[in-house]
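Listing S7. Sequence submitted for prediction.
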Amino acid sequence: MKSQDSIDQYQRFENTIAEFRRQPTEYPRRVHNRLTRQMHNALPAFLFWLATALLLNLLAGTWFTEREDKADAAAVLALCALALTIAARSYTVNHLLYHSLGRLGRLHGVHYVSERIGFLHRFMALSTLLWLGVHAAERHYAPPYGDEALLLGLLLALVVIIASASTPFRRRHHNHFENIHRYVGYLAVILLIAYLLVDSTQSAGSPAALIDRPQPYLVAAIVMMLIAPWIGVREAHPALVHVGPHVIGMRLPGAPSFGTYTRCTLANRHFHPFGDSMIDFDDTANRVLYITPAGDRTTEVVNAARAGDFMLAECTTRADRFKGFMYHLGVYDDVLIVVTGGGIAPVIPCLVLNTDKRINVLWLGRNQAEEFTEELLGKLLDKIAGRDINIHMLNTNDPDLRAIGDRHYTALILQACAHYRPQAVFVMSNQKFTIDVMHALRENGIKAYGATFDS
């Protein structure tokens, strides 16, 4: 049963919104450059993972200085660094950080750092290149230089992968970034295996002697981590169940859950993550993935569906569902969720499946009813009618809101925080707005969660 306090709070904030429409105020930013705001948002996690990587490399360097065969030791350390690079993005580590550690309590600092483990992924990739370079400098060269050619190819492949993962390239050429990470990554693994087999065999004297060396086992671990995501990949035949002006929805087998996302293939067999959502709020056997045009292959899929061609009628999905920042909502009792546009999709399970939390939603978007249909929104509101859940919707296409900018909406969000006093705020939006809102919330000492956009 919805409490009277929740009903009163809703009405009072609707009055605040009405006043905002008449006389909007701007948030006075203290940092005017968005890149600087983004760096401020990530700085503590950046420093934590940098310190972790430096400590690991310091320990590695200490061990390295004690070895007689420097080239062999550097090769082992390069493999260890590569293994950590891959592990940082593995499902097992994701599950550990989000489910095991994340559910210990309202550990916002732990959550904040764990969500940005991508920094460790990058630092260990650089460490791999560093130790491989040390190995190249320490090893002995002799004709016919076959293994040296493999080593040079491996070094070049790693340089290309790391360079393509830089933020400017990844943001401007995301499809190329994915292709390079996949195909050049596969090439690098093949070169690595070939090189280590040749080099280690030459050093050990015979293939049988490799059993006593760590390199084969490290290579096997790396290969297993690369293969693991493909175990359980299954064919799927999703049904197109929703087509809006900028949003489409497809239904897949599997119980809906909140804070998780499913990876499915788009064009060119690339896996893309989509937040798990719902369309039939009483259906516990199927989930729905909503897709919005995000500038990569999703744009092609959405445009084709709107033209009558559903490109994903046959695709594949991965069995493991990774957890995202919305998963941390489970440890809080009173939250504010800020949503823009199609970002409401992964929020829907949070509203429908959580029956004992107080949730307030501020949904900013263009023509929400047109994107998700009056019928769907009506069913959602009916489903949550008896719970302590309030949804405030602002149609940014309304005449009195068309001239409103991000700084005005940021000020309104801070008013919502002052009004509802949530334990934490969750921001589900595009990159620019997420950066701006997260920075404003942190400036005001409010616990905030949002996407890191480091894929």
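Caption to Listing S7: primary sequence and predicted structure tokens for the chain studied. The mean pLDDT is 88. The chain has three domains: 4-30+325-450, 36-230, 234-322.
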